[in-house]
Amino acid sequence: MRSIDSKPTFAGLEAASRTRLAKVLRATHGTVTPESAAAALADTRLAASKQLARWAEQGWLQRVRRGIYVPVPLESERADSAPEDAWLIANTAFAPCFIAGWSAVEQWSLTEQVFRSVCVATSRRPRHREQTIGGTVFALHTVPEVHFFGLKAVWRGPTRVQVSDPSRTVVDLLATPAWGGGIRTVVDVLQAYLKSEHRNLPLLLDYAGRLGNGAVFKRMGYLLQQHAPDAAEAIEACSGQLTAGYTKLDPALPSDRLVTAWGLWLPAGW
């Protein structure tokens, strides 16, 4: 019996078992579930689940969450090493979902910051908004499926994963600055976006309208006025979409100055 403190180790596979494992890995890309294994092996879900557990015990798969396994790279010295691509885990564990916020910012090279967690937008309502799977922290945000727009499919190995495109990413950060790590990071991302090949102000405005969040137009209009005064048409369009009431530029920060033209409270010392 293995002690409670021992780590998973690799064990040899018989030829038949090795053939079955290879068949499962060819049919599944990145993550393996009892359902996908059952389909690959033409077996029952229960039998497939038991087989996956055996392969995990032998060290050829790593169980990162109940019902979700990832293959262990052949070059790994330990069977409990961190999975190679956390996006593939998110794609299975939180589907339907897309990669968003600071993780999408990194994807589109709009920041030089390195974030330690993966930001995921999902239509699910998880009990815990922060979950650790396979050594990776996932920050989860619930969004309605009607807001699954402005997405790009990117290849992670042989698997396509949905991620918010550059314009949608900026709009999400303007809607919820916490998705970017706070308003000061959001400003940096917006400036990088405006200088990049991704700049598309008509699309930015279109996405803001589809999101239906009045705070986006307030923050966008004010920040464009401050950092891109040449974008006169976009600034005017934002001004025409202002809603009643006042909004904080960053809801997480204490605010002490009101910009009435945009209905925005600015953080102290801004």
Describe the 3D structure.
With 270 residues, this protein is of the alpha+beta class. It folds into 2 domains: 15-71, Winged helix-like DNA-binding domain superfamily/Winged helix DNA-binding domain (Arc Repressor Mutant, subunit A, Orthogonal Bundle); 86-267, no CATH class. 39% of the residues lie in helices and 19% in strands. The chain is built from 10 helices and 11 strands. The chain has helices spanning 15-27, 34-41, 45-58, 86-93, 101-107, 166-175, 183-195, 201-211, 214-227, 232-239; strands spanning 61-65, 68-71, 97-99, 117-122, 130-133, 136-142, 151-156, 159-164, 247-248, 255-259, 264-267. The strands form 4 sheets. Strands 3-4-6-5 form a 4-stranded mixed beta sheet. A 3-stranded mixed beta sheet has the order 9-11-10, covered by helices on one side. Strands 1-2 form a two-stranded antiparallel ribbon. Strand 10 and strand 11 (264-267) form a beta hairpin. Helix 5 (101-107) runs antiparallel to helix 6, helix 6 runs antiparallel to helix 7 and helix 9 (214-227) packs antiparallel against helix 10 (232-239). The longest helix is centred in the N-terminal third of the chain and has 14 residues, at 45-58. It is elongated, with a radius of gyration of 23 Å.
Average per-residue pLDDT, rounded, comes to 88
Record the strand order, biggest sheet: 3-4-6-5
- Beta-strand content bin: 15-25%
* Number of discrete domains: 2
Helix proportion of residues, in percent? 25-40%
Give the structural class.
Answer: alpha+beta
Low-confidence stretches: 1-10, 75-82
Radius of gyration: 23 Å
Major β-sheet, in short?
4 strands, mixed
Please state the overall shape, judged from the principal axes of the Cα atoms: elongated
By DSSP (H or I, 4+ residues per run), the number of helices equals 10
Total strand segments: 11
